[in-house]
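Duplicate of #3305? Posting structure anyway:
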């Protein structure tokens, strides 16, 4: 089956499974989403959602977050991975938003990626979910599934993003990004996964891929 045909069928199946795609990270404005996505690296969304209410009560926007000592931010987010570095980045990022963007989150990949702790994936999530700009942020779930489904060779996330953008219509990118994440969490775990019984892997994965996964 051609990659384009696979992609079309996958998109239809995911739309049937997940017609609604709420953003998994709790937030009330673009700034809070930016902070939450920054914190989600090497941490589950569930854990991020557990710690952000206390943090956002003290710093709901860039102006108020920039006034918090790093130690106060760290105390609230200590349970997330790489907390000391993330606390410093959140404080400095908030200061830079005040200094450069009037406290507002910029709707620009270039401007977002210039902020401390903000990589391409984080910028993509904010651009897609806060500003509706077509993006295809690739996390570990998407990177893994794209390789299993034969839509990308999985060499790196940049290549995966490029390959997925090539086979899926641009107007579907923002929703598909979340749909694939939801599917990965519910049906397609990283380890101990029987590809032959998976609703999508069972018909998209090659025999070689299935054998490789069985040996893990």
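Output from current build:
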């Amino acid at each position: 089956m051609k990659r384009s045909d696979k992609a079309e069928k996958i998109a239809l199946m995911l739309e049937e499974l997940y017609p609604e795609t709420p953003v998994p990270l709790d937030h009330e404005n673009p700034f809070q989403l930016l902070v939450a996505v920054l914190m989600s690296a090497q941490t589950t969304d569930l854990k991020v959602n557990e710690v952000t209410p206390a943090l956002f009560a003290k710093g709901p926007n860039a102006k108020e977050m920039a006034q918090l000592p790093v130690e106060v931010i760290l105390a609230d987010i200590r349970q997330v991975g790489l907390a000391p570095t993330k606390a410093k980045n959140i404080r400095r990022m908030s200061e830079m938003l005040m200094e450069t963007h009037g406290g507002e989150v910029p709707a620009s990949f270039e401007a977002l990626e210039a902020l401390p702790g903000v990589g391409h994936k984080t910028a993509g999530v904010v651009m897609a979910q806060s500003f509706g700009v077509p993006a295809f942020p690739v996390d570990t779930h998407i990177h893994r599934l794209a390789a299993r489904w034969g839509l990308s060779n999985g060499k790196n996330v940049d290549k995966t993003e490029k390959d997925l953008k090539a086979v899926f219509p641009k107007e579907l990118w923002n929703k598909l990004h979340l749909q694939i994440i939801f599917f990965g969490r519910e049906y397609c775990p990283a380890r101990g996964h029987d590809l032959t019984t998976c609703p999508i892997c069972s018909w998209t994965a090659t025999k070689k891929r299935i054998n490789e996964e069985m040996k893990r």
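Confirmed duplicate; merging threads. The mean pLDDT is 95. DSSP finds 13 helices and no strands in the chain.
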